[in-house]
């Protein structure tokens, strides 16, 4: 690496933390191998680094000061050993639920730099962003993250639209009655809306067996195992997706390839 | 260029080295504070090396060293994954 390489400040701090963990582990293992009942552990560490600080594409980057560089900044980092309850307490504050997609799902609406600015403002998930909009704080967020508020609202409107990610056949369970209709499972997000969504395949309505925002079970007729599936959540925007499950249809559709 | 140590290696080597010097029969050190100059170089892949200066005397061609302050405490060996004392 050249002498002038820079590193994002965040990556540098993470690297220091990783190195500290490694040092603590090494000292513990060495003490155990030596049969010592006690060992030394790092309680506190601080580092004073002379560096040039740059701001590039929404990132703070640092470069160690060169020889004879009188204008370098002095960065002072202080770390302390923390206990597991303290880790858990902090982790809980930053935890993201699996159902709450990260900002990367907005990649078609917001640039990477814009997403980084939102993360910088403490917003890491779409759910958090939506929550702020509902409380009317989106204008404030847009100002803090230096984003046009209309752009932010447009991105949020896009995330509220239903999106079907998967269309899958449902395998019958061992205890299911023999006359139970074959089902298709739709997976995605924002699927349900305020009430029961309307689902149609090939322009004909399909009975909805169960619906949630993440999953819908439908019972299509024998000739509805391929074609265009349209979905309209109650009070939401409609969406459509083409699919073909004719190979696993309970009654093979005309033209379905055998054994596909 | 000689192989430089990572920050973890420097901490362990310096800490245990200093501790070995402090072991005197009848005395148990409980805490140790060190302040050291270190040369920091960023490595490929986002990591970095932080080792003691290669030369005692610095010239105008050498980068200014960073300074590392370490506080060690005597504990039962802990493992970061469990925080349980070693068996």
Q: What is the makeup of the main sheet of chain B?
A: 3 strands, antiparallel
Mass-distribution shape of chain A: elongated
Strand-residue proportion of chain A: 25-35%
Helix content of chain A: 25-40%
Radius of gyration of chain B: 16 Å
Strand numbers in spatial order across the main sheet of chain B: 2-1-3
Can you give the mean pLDDT of chain B? 81
Number of individual domains of chain B: 1
- SSE pattern of chain B, N- to C-terminal: HEEE
Determine the strand fraction of chain B and express it as a percent band: 25-35%
Oligomer status: heterodimer
- Regions of chain A with pLDDT < 50 over 5+ consecutive residues? none
Q: How far apart are the termini of chain A?
A: 52 Å
Judging from the principal axes of the Cα atoms, what is the shape of chain B? elongated
Our count of domains of chain A comes out at 3
Describe what this molecule looks like in 3D.
The complex is a heterodimer of chains A (260) and B (87). Chain A has 260 residues and is an alpha+beta fold. Chain A has 3 domains: 86 residues, no CATH class; 62 residues; 86 residues, Immunoglobulins (Immunoglobulin-like, Sandwich), CATH 2.60.40. Helix content of chain A is 28%, strand content 28%. Chain A contains 6 helices and 12 strands. In chain A, strands 1-3-2-4 form a 4-stranded antiparallel beta sheet. In chain A, strand 7 and strand 8 form a beta hairpin. The longest helix of chain A is centred in the first third of the chain and has 25 residues. By secondary structure, chain B is an alpha+beta fold. Chain B has one domain. In chain B, 18% of the residues lie in helices and 30% in strands. A 3-stranded antiparallel beta sheet of chain B has the order 2-1-3, covered by helices on one side. In chain B, strand 1 and strand 2 form a beta hairpin. The longest helix of chain B has 16 residues. The N and C termini of chain B lie far apart (42 Å). The C terminus of chain B is likely disordered.
């Amino acid at each position: 690496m050249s002498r002038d390489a820079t590193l994002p400040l965040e990556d540098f701090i993470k690297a220091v933390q990783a190195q500290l963990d490694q040092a603590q582990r090494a000292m513990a293992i060495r003490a155990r191998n030596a049969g010592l009942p006690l060992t030394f552990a790092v309680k506190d560490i601080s580092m004073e680094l002379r560096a040039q600080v740059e701001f590039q594409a929404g990132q703070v980057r640092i470069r160690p000061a060169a020889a004879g560089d009188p204008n370098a900044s002095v960065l002072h980092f202080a770390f302390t050993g923390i206990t597991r309850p303290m880790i858990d307490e902090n982790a809980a504050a930053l935890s993201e639920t699996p159902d709450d997609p990260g900002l990367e799902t907005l990649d078609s609406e917001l640039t990477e730099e814009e997403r980084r600015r939102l993360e910088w403002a403490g917003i890491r998930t779409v759910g958090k962003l939506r929550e702020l909009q509902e409380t009317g704080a989106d204008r404030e967020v847009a100002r803090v993250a230096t984003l046009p508020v209309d752009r932010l609202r447009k991105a949020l409107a896009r995330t509220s639209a239903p999106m079907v990610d998967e269309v899958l056949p449902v395998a019958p369970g061992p205890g299911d009655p023999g006359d139970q209709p074959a089902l298709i499972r739709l997976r995605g997000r924002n699927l349900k809306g305020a009430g029961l969504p309307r689902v149609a395949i090939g322009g004909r309505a399909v009975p909805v067996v169960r619906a949630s925002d993440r999953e819908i079970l439908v019972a299509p007729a024998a000739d509805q195992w391929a074609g265009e599936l349209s979905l309209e959540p109650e009070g939401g925007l409609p969406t459509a997706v083409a699919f073909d499950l004719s190979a696993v249809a309970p009654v093979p559709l005309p033209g379905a390839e055998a054994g596909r | 260029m000689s192989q430089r140590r990572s920050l973890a290696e420097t901490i362990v080597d310096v800490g245990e080295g200093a501790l070995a010097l402090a072991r005197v029969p009848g005395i148990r050190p409980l805490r140790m504070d060190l302040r050291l100059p270190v040369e920091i170089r960023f490595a490929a892949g986002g990591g970095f090396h932080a080792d003691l200066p290669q030369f005692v005397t610095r010239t105008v061609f050498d980068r200014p060293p960073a300074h590392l302050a370490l506080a060690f405490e005597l504990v039962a060996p802990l493992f970061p994954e469990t925080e349980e004392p070693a068996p």
